[in-house]
C-alpha cells in the first residue's frame, strides 16, 4: 500500500521542523506537520491513523527531550527562547494523545520560567498570584 500524500508531506514538514526547531520556520513546519498528522489520525483508514500516531509520538518525544535538555542545561534561558519553546510545545498539543508522559511537567516548567522573567521587578505578591494561577490550571 502506498503512503498517502498527506503522510509524506507531514514527514517532510516534521523533518525540516526538527532540523530548524529554534526558528520561526521550524515552528511553522512543526504546526503544519502535526496538523496533517492529526487529520490523518482522525481519518477512516486505521493503518494510516496508526502510522500517523506513531510518527507524531516519535517526533513529540524527541522534541520534548530537546527542550527538556535545553531547559535543564541553562536555567536562565532568555525570555524569547522560552517563549519560542512554549509555542513549540503548544504546537505539539495538536496531537495530544502522542505526547510523552512528562509533557505537562515540561510545559509547566517553561511557563514557570516565563513567569520568573515576566515578573522580574514586580512585587513578590504579583508573582505569587501568577504562579497560583498556573498551578490552578494543572489542578494542584
Can you describe what's shown?
- The protein is mainly alpha-helical and 140 residues long.
- The chain has helices at 5-19, 24-41, 46-73, 79-92, 103-118, 124-138.
- Helix 1 runs parallel beside helix 3, helix 3 crosses helix 5 and helix 5 packs antiparallel against helix 6.
- The protein is elongated, with a radius of gyration of 17 Å.
- The model has no long low-confidence stretch (mean pLDDT 91).
Supply the key terms:
elongated, 140 residues, mainly alpha
Q: Would you list the SSEs in sequence order as H and E?
A: HHHHHH
Proportion in β-strands: under 5%
How would you sum up the major sheet? Answer: none
Distance between the termini: 47 Å
Low-confidence stretches: none
Radius of gyration: 17 Å
Fraction in helix: over 70%
Structural class: mainly alpha
What is the average per-residue confidence, as pLDDT, rounded to a whole number? Answer: 91
The best one-word shape is elongated
Amino acid at each position: 500500500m502506498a503512503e498517502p500524500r498527506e503522510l509524506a508531506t507531514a514527514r517532510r514538514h516534521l523533518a525540516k521542523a526538527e532540523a530548524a526547531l529554534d526558528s520561526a520556520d521550524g515552528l511553522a513546519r512543526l504546526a503544519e506537520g502535526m496538523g496533517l498528522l492529526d487529520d490523518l489520525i482522525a481519518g477512516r483508514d486505521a493503518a494510516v491513523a496508526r502510522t500517523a500516531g506513531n510518527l507524531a509520538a516519535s517526533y513529540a518525544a524527541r522534541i520534548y527531550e530537546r527542550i527538556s535538555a535545553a531547559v535543564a542545561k541553562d536555567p536562565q534561558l532568555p525570555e524569547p527562547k522560552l517563549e519560542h519553546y512554549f509555542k513549540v510545545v503548544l504546537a505539539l498539543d495538536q496531537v495530544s494523545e502522542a505526547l510523552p508522559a512528562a509533557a505537562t511537567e515540561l510545559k509547566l516548567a517553561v511557563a514557570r520560567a516565563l513567569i520568573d522573567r515576566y515578573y522580574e521587578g514586580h512585587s513578590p505578591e504579583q508573582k505569587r498570584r501568577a504562579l497560583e494561577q498556573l498551578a490552578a490550571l494543572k489542578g494542584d
